[in-house]
Amino acid sequence: MAPHTIKEKHMNDIHVVRYFSSLITISKGKVVRITKPVISHCPLAGFFYKGLGKSRQLSPAGLKKEIKKVIEDKIYKFGFCTEDRMVWKDEAVVPYGASEIMAHGLKSRFIDSAVTVCDGVGTVVTALPQVVQGIGARMHAIIKTAYIPKVAIKLRRYGCYVLSDKGIIDQRAGVAEAIKKGCKKVAVTVSAFGKESLKNIRALESRFDISLTILVVCTTGAGRDRLSEIEKYADIVWTCHSGDVKDRLSGKAIKTMSSVSPVHILTEKGVKLIAGYSPNKFGMRKEAKRSVAARLIIQEML
Predict the structure, then answer these.
(1) What is the number of alpha carbons within 13 Å of residue 106 lying toward its C-beta?
(2) How far apart are CA 105 and CA 276, in angstroms?
(3) Is the pLDDT of residue 43 over 90?
(4) Quick one: pLDDT band at residue 282, thresholds 50, 70, 90?
(5) 11 CB contacts (<8 Å, ≥6 apart)?
(6) Across 242-262, average pLDDT
(7) Is 167 exposed, middle or buried (0-12, 13-18, 19+ CB in 10 A)?
């Protein structure tokens, strides 16, 4: 096979995700590249993945090896970034995860649609809490994804709207499509690491007279300008491993959940979205209940 043909083949199946501050490239169901992580420890990752529990003691090569194991485990068990991708789940995985909170919002009818991102398709609009959780429970921040027809077919069978057949990630366009379909109470996840304008997404709320709840994830490494935008336009923000987010938002949040990886609720709308939420009520999986992270977070709720 000619060299250019090999390149074209792989270009059709390239997925780039962000985890533990590394950029991980996946192709054909295999991890093909991992960049050097810029952090040495992530509390939540350490709680949920044994190999990352002592990440500060690992060499750079050893840390990359453990990151690779986490991603490979997700590929093997859940079809991450492949046509075998699982998209339906009705159990909590991360006690205060974005997908868990949005799924709760759909169940409580505080929102009527969720705009999220799924590896293999890009931006997705759905009204099913089980699909929100199925997509988000095992997913990391998606920087780039390739379109996988079989994943799109699964989602469409559940009545989901897939933004494009090119794996495009455009959360503003996703919100606009939800509005076109008659949705009035929309929640959307936006990666702080990405470049999408929160201001432009928020502008759709007043323009179309809807309720829009913006959840910002993957904040590790976000710059000063991005943090200013997040502070001004977001409703709920995940600290991840960003000391800057914690320092900047801790005193301004109406409510902060979890000391393991703080989740800052900045608006009354955010408070209403999480009202009545509990991992136990959601149906938290037994493995997560046994984890140290889950026990600590649940204890804070009691």
Answers:
(1) 23
(2) 10
(3) no
(4) low
(5) none
(6) 84
(7) buried
Which strands make up the sheet holding 141-144, listed edge to edge? 30-34, 22-27, 15-19, 141-144
* pLDDT tens-digit series, residues 5-20: 434 444 589 999 999 9
Tokens for 258? Answer: 């979890």
CB–CB of 118/155 below 8 Å?
Answer: yes
Each residue's pLDDT tens digit, 169-221: 999 999 999 999 999 999 999 999 888 999 999 999 999 999 999 999 998 88
Phi-psi group of 28: left, alpha or beta (phi > 0 → left; psi -120 to 50 → alpha; rest → beta): left
CA separation for the pair 151, 83 (Å, rounded): 6
Q: Following CA atoms 254, 283, 129, 287 in sequence, which dihedral angle do they give, to the nearest 10 degrees?
A: 90
